[in-house]
Here is the input.
Amino acid sequence: MKINKDTKISRILKETPESLEAIASINKHFRKLRNPVLRKMLASRVSIADAAKIGGVSTDVFFKKLIAYGFEPETQMDEIKTNTENNIEMEKFEKENVVQMDVRPTIQAGNDPFKEIMAAIKTLPENAVLEIINVFEPIPLINNLRDKGFMSFTERPSEGEVHTFFKRTAESRTEETPDIQHTDLSSFELKAAEFGGNIKTIDVRDLEMPMPMATILEEVEVLPEGHALFVHHKRIPQFLLPELKKRDYTILSNEIDENNLNLLIYK
Here is the structure.
């Protein structure tokens, strides 16, 4: 299998599961992939380039490790900013001008912190740094804000504690989160009926954060053309919307009650 900097880690592990240990050996941060829950959450959204940035290494390090498992790099070297370079950028941050937000209690309560994070981003003073404290690296948030022109840097002061710093660049944008189409029950059921038997149903209401998003993204990765994914959810998955927008998916929603929401995801 040919690989490049944009190849997803999930594709590599699906092709050759044994390569997990090779990736884990690159950096201690990749050992989390041994955890099935975190592997399911991260691998489908993280490319070799993303992983290299997280680990502070070049993509060439990944290529050299994976060659032994039969993978064929399409390029010899890829230019990528490493965490060492990010350290240099971090030194430019105004350390005394940090707005700290600990989202661990929100996640532990089973809620999505996306709205409060985006509210903090919108009101972030000029030249200030937003520090998010979490238990895992918030890859979807990093990608979302990178697309809006924010630089980021991650530190792990202790086991199970991750601090991610965000700062606006001159090109940063704060456009609204991609919208979702809210419909009444009859319109929702009518659209779902158009797919006939080409629809898969999953229920993520009882899954702990961040597994609802990870499960939906995993299903979307293998969703055949012309099919739809029907999801029983508790709430609007704010982190998921930008990821689905990148994949050109449409999302319909129908709220049953305050703890029950149906989603229909399709192209």
